[in-house]
Each structure stands twice: as structure tokens, then as C-alpha cells.
Amino acid sequence: MKILLLAIRSLSRFRLYTIINILGLAMSLACVMIISRYVFRELTVDHFNQNLDRICLGTQHFDSEIKPRFSYSFNSRTGAGDPVLENNPSIEKITAFSTLPEDIIESDNKKHTARIIVTDTVFLQIMEYDVMVGNKQNLLKGPQDAVITQRYARKLFGSEENAIGKKILCSGGQMVTVTAVLKEPVEKSSIQFDMLVSYQLQKNWGYMFSACLLLNPGTDIQKLNKELATNDREGVNLYQLLPLKDNYFDDSVNRFTDSFQQGNFGNIMILSGVAFLILLVGIFNFINIYTVLMLKRARELGMKKVFGAKATQMLVQLISENLAMIGGALFIAWLLIEISGEAISNLLGITQVNNIKFDLLLSLAILIVLPVITSVYPFIKYNYSTPISSLRSVNISGNSVVSRTIFMVFQYTITCCLIIVSLFFMKQLNFMLHADLGYRTKDIIKAQFLKFPPTAHTLPQEEIMKLFEDLGKKNEEIKQKLNSSPLFSAWTFGESPNEIQDYGSRIKTPDGEFKEVKSTSMSSTDLKIFELQLKEGRFWNDSTDTELDYKFIINETAQKLFGITNLETALLQPERRLWWNGDEELMSQNPAYQIIGIVKDFKYTHLAKPAVPLVISIAQSRPYNSKLTAVVQPGKRQEAIAFLRKLHDETIGGDFEYSFVEDDVNAMYKEDKKAAYIYSIFTVIAILISSLGLFSLSLFDVQQRYREIAIRKVNGATTDVVMKMMLRKYFKLLGLAFIISVPISLLAIFRYLENFANKASVSWWIFAVALIVTAGISLATLIWQIRKAAQTNPATAMKAE
Q: Which of 137, 160, 459, 505 is the most buried (most CB within 10 A)?
């Protein structure tokens, strides 16, 4: 304690340098800890499960799709699953679950959208969600039991306690009772839901189930997948198990719904790199300023060595001083995090969840490691120098100047790199957000109106007919009011290009090989609304073309893949039928498709991905399965929203949800935006940290040369001459740092663009702006101090020590 108090007393003699050093490091640590907490949360998704290494999700490979998907051959009537998995000795527990991502429930006579999972008790035995209210042992035991999340309980009932015993009406007409509320896990869950209901609630759900498995301890998943792959059963698709710990970052599975969350590992690496660079800026800045402190205390340290101070004592003192400053910086950093937590979450989308264990470990690591790192250089410098060297004026030795110069070059280099890469990230983001996608996105609104309940087919026939009749009446009312409204130039019920899923088909090429293509269906109104550009042939003709026709419109990439030069003779032969019909005779046929038109490639996926071959079949308006899609007259957005909201309330009721297609497209780049904004904001902070360090160093340099400046002024030197002399060194350092930063930045940019099919150009102005910004902010600090020194009365300066 005495050593620590001595360290604090020594630092307090140079308050300005100490305060600047602590503030600079505090800002650096705050940034690093914010990013570290976010990265840790992303890397520990699903880690609330103690048996995470043994939990898997079942995927099946379908011939009609490019990617496998979560799927399980499960009969909800009997509760029986596929015997290949049910009877496998490597599997300890297995259950089925099905996701209903946008179901409609009713509570207290109010309709709400809910993400529902249909499953049983075993699901909650495998997935270890903690129960906040209710009996964990009896979850989903009864057919009418329901379990909801803590967040959804607050939304519906105001609190968790109020939820128990509440009745909820499901979309299939069944009433369920809330028996438990699940606590929100500290770690993020990759499977998102609002409510769990039992698959015993009805006999047939009509939705494809997925499998959740708990393997026996010691099971080799790769070996088990090889065994499942060799289990060749005619007419049955291939099972493969995906470890839950890999699910969040694995993009090989087609998720279809947002019930299965997916992370972006590339952005996590970028943010980790940002944190590392900012930490380096903070450390270099800290060491540099602390070196200045040591120079001002050189005689003190020299006297201690004269009076017999040992190396151990010197090291303890240095570490104690650094520990005191780093401790203060850490405390301020946590204050900054707590104060800015909500703003960071809203502005950057970085959720700050308190994980006490991680926060304590991170703080301890900083307090233990950083003082050692920051004490190494000062200890080596002053422990191995002779006492007489320390007792002399600090200007005699050139080593201090050399070390400070090296640290400053490092700081300038990192700052320039951060600015260059940040500017390019923003340019690439702007390029993607404003790229010509090849189809219209502006002023197109989408809203959910008529929705056929996913479980309605299990109702008695008379109720199904009544439901259809009711929906039909609402559909006619909606059509009538939309057709008579001047707010819309066109409308339909359909999907937009950005919603094209990873459905696929295998189609034969001219050389007899089957190639995978993406497939979708669009109506003539869809093509009109989104203004797809016809390259050759024609679009659908509603008077002659029907959904039963074997006709395709394809894109340019598909045309190149299949070598199509003449539409009149071009035919595409799918490996299997692309659509289902109840007519057995029709289903036994698989004729080739006629190509009636070719559209220019349009970019319906993230621009990082290349264009893929696409075949489009004809579709009619689908009022019961798709969202309303309408083209709003220019300048009438607010009126259109109000009109649709009123129409929704009059015909459907419940929550009115809408979006504009251009916003949906921009949402594809949510993670890119987050990374770019975070990078830019933290770059600004890094510049501020460097500026604080430069202020301290320049202040020290100018103070050491007060007499020199005074003598030059006495001999006739003007303020401008003094400024040029003093700035010359910093111009050289900045130029050297910029030269080093250019290839490093280019390497980082090219590595970032490796997986991008569509790239923005690397413009020269990015480097010019980086140089100007770095020079402007840095030199502004220097010029202010040098001008102040140059304008000092020479007589006063000559008296200064």
C-alpha cells in the first residue's frame, strides 16, 4: 500500500501529463471492452447449454434445393420420428420441433404476431433454458400447455407473474394456458421464439419438423455423419447432423425463417481487428506519455540509483505507478460504458449484456497484463542506464527522442490505417446501398393482410370452408378498396425479388450434366411492379399462360450456363418435377420447359455474392400466402401507410406490420452497416486518443526548447521561422507513417474484398483524405503550442529551467 501511495504521490507532481495519459487510455479501454463484450457474446451463442458439445440439429438434403435445411421426418399424430435417428445408439435423446415464424395469436381480445415453436418436454430437457416462473418438471406435459419467454410475457401481460394461467388463442382455434415463463439466457440463443406449444395440441401440424438431438458422451459427430450418409434408403433424403455450437455461424443450411439466427463471422473478425488496433493506439500513447513523465523525473530516478535503489525496487515502483494509472483509466472506462450503453445499443446495434464473470476476467486481465507491458520499456531504459546519465539534462541523451519518435510513427501509422480502411468501408457500403439492382425498389410497400393459418387444414371440413369463405369476402373488400384508391398505381399479393429463397432445381445442360439453379415463381403483375428488364423474348401473358404450363423465364447467367442462343428451340429439362398437383397422371409427367423470355441479371441477394442462374415459373396472385405488394404514388407514402393501416384494422385487425422494399433490401446490409459505423466511430476515437498523446509530447518538446526559441527570437527569427523549424520533424514523421500505412491498408482492403463479387473501386482520394485529416488534427495541436511558445517574451523564456 505504501508503494502504491508513493506512486500516486509521484504522479500527482505532473498532474497534466497524468490526467491526459489516464483519459487517453480510458477511451481506448472503453472501446476495447465494448467490442470485446459484443464479440464474446457472439462467440458464446448457445453456451447456456452445459452439454453444448453434444447437442445437434438435424438437416436433410433435398434434391429440389441448393442447400440442405433443418428437417425431420416426424409424425405428430403418433409422436414417432425416423427410426434411423430414433434407434441410433449414439443418440441419448431426440425430439422434434417446428417453427411457425409469423403466427397470429390472440390474448385479451387483441391479436399479436408470435414466433412459435411446436415441440415437447424433451426439447426443454436438451435445450437448457432456465424457468423464471412455473414448474420446470412439468413443462408442456399437457396438450393445452404453453411456455412463453420473459420478453413476450412482458409484452402481453406486463410482467412474468401475471402470465401464469393466462389463456391464449392459437391461430388453429385452440386455447392454450401459460404454465411457465422462460428466463432470457445471458448468452444469446441461435433459436429464437416467443412461445412454445405442445405438438399434442392437434393431430397434424402440416409444417416440416426439425430434429434436436443430444448425443451420448464421447460420440464422434463426423463419424456419425458418415454412417448416416451411407444409410442409402430409396426415396428418403440424406440426414446430416449440425452441431449446435456451429449453427450460428454456419451458412451452409437454408434457414428460410428468422427463427434460426445467423451471425457474421467476417464482421466479428473485423471488429476484433478494430479493438486490437485501438488497444495498440492506447498502449503506444500511454507508453509515450509515460516516457515523457520519466524524462521529467530523470534526475529523481538517478538519485535513487545513487542511494542504492535495486532493480527490483525500480520495477515495483514502475509497475505500481502504471497500475495506479491503469486502474484509474479502467474505472473511467467502465463509467463511460455504463453511461453510453443505451446510446451504443441504439446507434451501433451493439447489445451490452452484463456478464459479470466475463467483465471481471476482462478487468483483471487488463490490470495484470497492461502494467507489465507498459513498464517494460521504462524499466529497461532507466535500470540499465548509469546514474550520471539520468542526473544530466534530459536533452543530452538521444535515446529518449528515438524511442518517442518510434512510438509516434506507430501511432500515426495505425491512425492513418484506421482512417483509410474506415473511408473505404463507408464507400463500399454506399456502393452496395445505392447500386443498380436491375429491378425497382422505390415506393413499393409490403404489408401482411390475409394469412391462412398454418394449422387450419387440420380443422373440420366445414370450418375450413367457412374460413375460406371469410377470407374470400375480405379479399374482395381489399381488392375493391385498393382498386378505387388513387394512392397506388399497381398492386398484387406476391413476393419481391429480394425474398427469393435458396430453393433450387437441377437442370440438364447441353452436355448431359445436371447443374443446380435457383428457382422462383412470379406473376405478370410482379414483373410489372418490379420492372424487370427484358433482354429477349416476352413476359407472361395472363390470357394464354397458366400455372400448369411448362414455361420458364430465365436470367442472363442461366442463358450462359445452358448455352441458349435460340428461344424458339430452347428447352430446359429438370431432373425432377418442379411443382406438385393432386392429379396422379399429371404428377407422373416431367416434360421439358420452354423458354419464353430472358431477363437481364438482377441482384436479389447480398452484393457480396455473384450472380447465379435463375429460372422463373409463372405464378398467380396469392392473397392467402403472400404479403400485399403495392406501388405507392410518388410523395404519398404517409397517406398510403395510413390508408393500409385503416384497411387492415377494418378487415383483419391486430398488429399492422409493413415495410418498403428498399428498406428490406437495405436490411441485407445491416451487419455491413454496423461494421462500417463502428469502425468509423472508433476511428474518430483513435484519432482523439492520438491527439491527446501528441498534445503531451509536443508540450514537452516545446518546453524543453523554450531557451532555444528565445535565443533564436533575440537573433531575429520570426514566429513563422520558429514554427517551420519545430514542425519539420513532425512532417517527416507523418510522411513516414503515411508511406508505411498505404500498403498495410491496401492489404486489409483486398483481404476484406476477397469474398465480394461486387466491389467499389479503391480511389486515390481515400488516401489523400486520410493524410489531410491526420495531418490537420495532429498539426493543429502542434501549431497552437509552438505559436504560444514563439510568442513568449524571450526574457521570460531565458529564465525558465
A: 505
Closest CA to 14 of 205, 289, 281, 206: 289
3-class secondary structure, 202:
coil
Report the pLDDT value the prediction gives residue 398, as an integer from 0 to 100: 43
* Cross-strand pairs, 617: 521
Give the integer Cα–Cα distance in Å for 79 and 95. Answer: 9
Residue 796, number of CB atoms within 10 A of its CB: 10
What does the alpha-carbon distance between residue 130 and residue 185 come to, in Å, rounded to a whole number? 7
Contacts of 256 (CB under 8 A, 6+ apart): 69, 501
- 511's CB contacts (< 8 A; 6+ apart) are none
Sequence spans of domains, the chain: 1-45+266-397, 52-247, 449-494+632-656, 497-620
pLDDT digits (tens, 9 = 90+) for 547-588: 888 899 999 999 999 988 888 888 888 877 776 665 666 656
261: which 3 cell numbers? 439466427
> Do residues 198 and 143 make contact, with C-beta atoms less than 8 angstroms apart?
yes
* Tens-digit pLDDT profile for residues 614-672: 999 898 767 677 888 999 999 999 999 999 999 988 888 777 889 999 999 998 888 88
Nearest to 105 by CA among 176, 165, 157: 176
CA distance 630 to 660: 10
Q: Which residues pair with 593 in a beta bridge?
A: 572
Map 343-407 to HEC letters.
HHHHHHCCCCCCCHHHHHHHHHHHHHHHHHHHHHHHHHHHHCCCHHHHHCCCCCCCHHHHHHHHH
Q: Are 519 and 615 in contact (CB under 8 A)?
A: yes
CA-CA distance, 378 to 275, in Å (whole number)?
Answer: 25
Low-confidence ranges of the chain (pLDDT < 70): 1-14, 63-65, 206, 231-237, 294-311, 352, 381-404, 452-460, 579-588, 621, 623, 697-708, 710, 713-717, 719, 785, 788-801
At position 560, the amino acid (one-letter code) is K
The C-alpha cell that represents 703 in the structure block: 518546453
SS (H, E, C) 694-747: HHHHHHHHHHHCHHHHHHHHHCCCCHHHHHHHHHHHHHHHHHHHHHHHHHHHHH
Q: pTM of this prediction?
A: 0.78
- Residue 764 CA to residue 788 CA, distance in Å, equals 36
Q: Where are the beta strands (DSSP E) in 543-639?
A: 551-555, 571-572, 593-599, 614-618, 628-632
pLDDT at res. 675: 80
AA identity, residue 570: A
